[in-house]
Design a protein that fits this description.
The protein has about 130 residues and is α+β, with helices and mostly antiparallel strands. It has three helices and twelve strands. A hairpin with a 2-residue loop joins strand 5 and strand 6 (about 40).
């Protein structure tokens, strides 16, 4: 299927690099994505988990989203632990657009992960 990798940097060029909280790379794209031990191409899915603070949220919602969009990341998830939700952005006409916001009773699926599904409530611990 592929690889879910935590906290690994993606180097798009000398001036654009990010470290998503999680990313997914398919087995088929792995050889062209890792060059010299470095991730140099867009993952199929980039996942950011919102950290408290307006500057952190601004970075994930604007700076990283614009970079992922410009670098043709097909799918971007923003996980909001406080609201126990996941915003799913998918590339349409070369730009990431909000596909939906999933909450507790929704099921997460992705065209990037055929056969995968998870209830949103199962992804957040019950405190």
């Amino acid at each position: 299927m592929g690889y879910v990798v935590p906290g690994v940097g993606v180097i798009f060029d000398d001036h654009n690099a990010v470290i998503p909280d999680l990313l997914y790379i398919s087995k088929e794209r792995m050889p062209e994505t890792i060059v010299g031990g470095r991730l140099v191409r867009a993952p199929e899915i980039a996942i950011e988990i919102l950290s408290p603070g307006s500057s952190n949220e601004r970075r994930d919602r604007h700076v990283k989203m614009n970079l992922y969009s410009a670098r043709a990341v097909p799918e971007y998830w923003i996980v909001d632990p406080e609201n126990r939700s996941i915003e799913i952005y998918r590339s349409r006409s070369g730009k990431l657009e909000l596909s939906g916001t999933l909450q507790a009773d929704n099921v997460l699926t992705s065209p990037q992960l055929p056969g995968f599904n998870a209830r949103i409530e199962s992804l957040f611990p019950n405190f």
